[in-house]
């Protein structure tokens, strides 16, 4: 007779907020799976529900509280973790029945809280963790988190007060994780942190041995090593750098992009261009020569995509400041831009700044910046029509009922998942799957997306 094991407890997970939070959720789930827990896709089947919250903006807090409320109503056995977990009193006041509240990155505490709420079945005989850990993102792309916290004190941001100062991971640990991810099927690595250019500043760029050579905990060394990873078929993964501030050493990674070792893509959250607004924001690497450097980067690597985000309506922003930003954008010709209306965040220094911008003015500036950046994006994408570009497939469609043709949603090197555009493909043929990388002819473009066919 076969041995019958008791059913393993099941965990439900609600993950809110940014990709960084997703990485935390993945880590927690990986640990719980290795402790013998199973996952539940719905509230009803879960013994405990974990809500991984985000507390960055007041609107994110609202969303987090709503998610906790929903989990309480649907299941009732809820553990709260993540950024909002640092406000345990507020959560307990609203939801006295929550089983436990733990803060951001307190992996052990969350796992212990789950053990207390629903003890694991001892002696699980099987290793439940697939190589590379459990991932909530599709298997073909993975976020690689290189540090926690931030040494800057931007006046609109409360992340340093929630997450503390910069703590960088060891370079060999980062590279080992990246290597494992790639050998487990990841085709695209997305490097994330609060400030990727500052990686290793806290450890004085401590070098470690990696593959018989000394590698520093430094963005340039890391980028060079990541660019040398190969999958089982000997192919290089795409490697994308996010949250990069334009410190001088960023110039050193541009040649790596030109050589094809790094995806020619930089995500630099400029937030503004006007010197007085940048000063009031206390932004890092705020210097006047950025436009010259962008021109130089494009001279070295003409295909580089620069993505950024901007805040309009920051306290004290005048019409002249805003016009400066629009003119700057005309010059910079950034490929991808996200814009936000300034929103005060509880606890942020910026809230006390004079010169609050009326909502109607914020809205009007928001519309103007969106119009400007959409026009730049449309022109840049139109210039790609007729070119042959590599794409990575995110999803393959079902065969068309009439002619059997198959379409797919893919991305070019200019598109990071979830935040940028897509390349919609026709007639991809049979046998394609998510993560495949191949060349396509770009046939059409609109404001944000491209359309193409495999060559
Ligand atoms: S760089 Fe500024 S905005 Fe980014 S996490 Fe640090 S303080 Fe916040």
From TrEMBL:
<keyword id="KW-0479">Metal-binding</keyword>
<keyword id="KW-0963">Cytoplasm</keyword>
<dbReference type="Pfam" id="PF18693">
    <property type="entry name" value="TRAM_2"/>
</dbReference>
<dbReference type="Pfam" id="PF00919">
    <property type="entry name" value="UPF0004"/>
</dbReference>
<keyword id="KW-0808">Transferase</keyword>
<dbReference type="GO" id="GO:0103039">
    <property type="term" value="F:protein methylthiotransferase activity"/>
</dbReference>
<dbReference type="InterPro" id="IPR023404">
    <property type="entry name" value="rSAM_horseshoe"/>
</dbReference>
<keyword id="KW-0949">S-adenosyl-L-methionine</keyword>
<feature type="binding site">
    <location>
        <position position="54"/>
    </location>
    <ligand>
        <name>[4Fe-4S] cluster 1</name>
    </ligand>
</feature>
<dbReference type="InterPro" id="IPR012340">
    <property type="entry name" value="NA-bd_OB-fold"/>
</dbReference>
<feature type="binding site">
    <location>
        <position position="83"/>
    </location>
    <ligand>
        <name>[4Fe-4S] cluster 1</name>
    </ligand>
</feature>
<dbReference type="InterPro" id="IPR007197">
    <property type="entry name" value="rSAM"/>
</dbReference>
<dbReference type="InterPro" id="IPR020612">
    <property type="entry name" value="Methylthiotransferase_CS"/>
</dbReference>
<dbReference type="InterPro" id="IPR038135">
    <property type="entry name" value="Methylthiotransferase_N_sf"/>
</dbReference>
<keyword id="KW-0004">4Fe-4S</keyword>
<feature type="binding site">
    <location>
        <position position="157"/>
    </location>
    <ligand>
        <name>[4Fe-4S] cluster 2</name>
    </ligand>
</feature>
<feature type="domain" description="Radical SAM core">
    <location>
        <begin position="136"/>
        <end position="379"/>
    </location>
</feature>
<protein>
    <recommendedName>
        <fullName>Ribosomal protein uS12 methylthiotransferase RimO</fullName>
        <ecNumber>2.8.4.4</ecNumber>
    </recommendedName>
</protein>
<comment type="function">
    <text>Catalyzes the methylthiolation of an aspartic acid residue of ribosomal protein uS12.</text>
</comment>
<dbReference type="InterPro" id="IPR013848">
    <property type="entry name" value="Methylthiotransferase_N"/>
</dbReference>
<dbReference type="InterPro" id="IPR005839">
    <property type="entry name" value="Methylthiotransferase"/>
</dbReference>
<comment type="similarity">
    <text>Belongs to the methylthiotransferase family. RimO subfamily.</text>
</comment>
<feature type="binding site">
    <location>
        <position position="154"/>
    </location>
    <ligand>
        <name>[4Fe-4S] cluster 2</name>
    </ligand>
</feature>
<dbReference type="InterPro" id="IPR058240">
    <property type="entry name" value="rSAM_sf"/>
</dbReference>
<dbReference type="InterPro" id="IPR002792">
    <property type="entry name" value="TRAM_dom"/>
</dbReference>
<dbReference type="Pfam" id="PF04055">
    <property type="entry name" value="Radical_SAM"/>
</dbReference>
<keyword id="KW-0689">Ribosomal protein</keyword>
<dbReference type="InterPro" id="IPR006638">
    <property type="entry name" value="Elp3/MiaA/NifB-like_rSAM"/>
</dbReference>
<dbReference type="GO" id="GO:0005840">
    <property type="term" value="C:ribosome"/>
</dbReference>
<keyword id="KW-0687">Ribonucleoprotein</keyword>
<keyword id="KW-0408">Iron</keyword>
<keyword id="KW-0411">Iron-sulfur</keyword>
<feature type="binding site">
    <location>
        <position position="18"/>
    </location>
    <ligand>
        <name>[4Fe-4S] cluster 1</name>
    </ligand>
</feature>
<feature type="binding site">
    <location>
        <position position="150"/>
    </location>
    <ligand>
        <name>[4Fe-4S] cluster 2</name>
    </ligand>
</feature>
<dbReference type="InterPro" id="IPR005840">
    <property type="entry name" value="Ribosomal_uS12_MeSTrfase_RimO"/>
</dbReference>
<feature type="domain" description="MTTase N-terminal">
    <location>
        <begin position="9"/>
        <end position="119"/>
    </location>
</feature>
